[in-house]
Structure formats: structure tokens, C-alpha cells
Design brief:
The complex is a heterodimer. Chain A is mainly β. In chain A, 0% of the residues lie in helices and 64% in strands. Chain A has strands spanning 4-7, 10-13, 19-25, 31-38, 42-51, 54-57, 64-70, 73-78, 87-97, 100-107, 111-115. In chain A, strands 2, 4, 5, 6, 9, 10 and 11 form a seven-stranded mixed beta sheet that branches. A four-stranded antiparallel beta sheet of chain A has the order 1-3-8-7, with no helix packed on it. Chain A starts with a strand and ends with a strand. In chain B, a hairpin with a 2-residue loop joins strand 7 (56-59) and strand 8. Classes of the chains: A mainly beta, B mainly beta.
Amino acid sequence: DAGITQSPRHKVTETGTPVTLRCHQTENHRYMYWYRQDPGHGLRLIHYSYGVKDTDKGEVSDGYSVSRSKTEDFLLTLESATSSQTSVYFCAISDSLAGGINNEQFFGPGTRLTVL
Amino acid sequence: GNSVTQMEGPVTLSEEAFLTINCTYTATGYPSLFWYVQYPGEGLQLLLKATKADDKGSNKGFEATYRKETTSFHLEKGSVQVSDSAVYFCALSEGGGFKTIFGAGTRLFVKA
């Protein structure tokens, strides 16, 4: 199994509070992703990173920010949590191959966030 | 833009029944296609993949063939087991790119 951990695994918070989720990898993979999973929507990309300090927005980035100061860590921050951000959040990683990109992704175990 | 459409669930089958989960895609180029599986309480894991037209991906008795003419990548298994109960996601990644687009997922229940 790819070495990906997420913390916390469960969190309950109140509307308006800031929340930071952490993804940590031991695979030295270049690319890291944050998704949210909601019933009927599958996985939707929030933000992704293609290297240290290199990040970009996904399809549902409003209300979220990210940072990647080291290869192994990718942080997702909800600046002011809202009830619509109640979801299960997954981190994923992928890597490059010589001559191309290996677009197979490896997923962490997820963080269940509830915003009251 | 690129998209993936898969059949809605849940799909409920008896053990040893034949499984098909339909998946079609829209893409501008030549994507790689994937099936991921998510067991209860876990993250997604790759089940199989195909990188070009007419390729067949297979793993754990599951198969899917990349059909460019019908833009499809249907998942099949000849005899399902209770342990196959999970959510299955079809996905695509544009050739040379690193972002993946996922379908909505199909939940499979297998009864003993």
C-alpha cells in the first residue's frame, strides 16, 4: 500500500471556524490532490499540487486553500467552515514516469468532516 | 470538457451472478481509462486500467475493454462474491495529463 496518511480522520466543527486537514505521503510522489466525496457527485477535485509551492485550483475550490511547503505534506484549509463543506475529504498522490506521467492515483483513507 | 457517465446504483446481485457496470466517457483526446473500487470506510484503490483503444484491463476476475468507437469502458465480472460489495468508480485521465475525472460511482451489493 502507498504510504499516505490523513489527519484527523474525523472532525466535528462549528460554522465559521477555520479547519486544516493534513495529508502526508512517504512515497516521494510529485503530484498531490484533495478531493471531496459527496453522494451523487462522486469525487470532485478541490485543489492539486504539481510540486513544492506549486498548486492550482480544481473544480470546487471556493472556500478552500492549500499549501505545500514540503514534498511529503499537502494541507487543505477551510478558512471559515460552512455546513455545505460537510463531506468526506480524500487526499491522493501520483507520480511521473520516465518519458511521461503515471496518472494512476493512490488514495489516503479519508477524513470525515462535519460542520454544524 | 471531459466527462464520465456511469450507471446509477445501487446494483444488487446474488453471489455467483454476472456483473456489468456501464461506463461511457467524453474526451477530446486519447485518455487512459480506469476503474477504482472503494470498500466501506476506505479510500479508493485502482482495480484496473487501459491506456489505449482495444486494450483490456483485468484484475481479481474483473475485466473492462477500452472501446473507442463506442466511447465505453464497461466493467464485467463473471461470478461476483459477497466480498465484491463496494462502490465502483469509472475514471479517465487525458493522455499526458495528471488530473483524473471520476464518475459518480456505482454501489454494488452482493447477497449470499
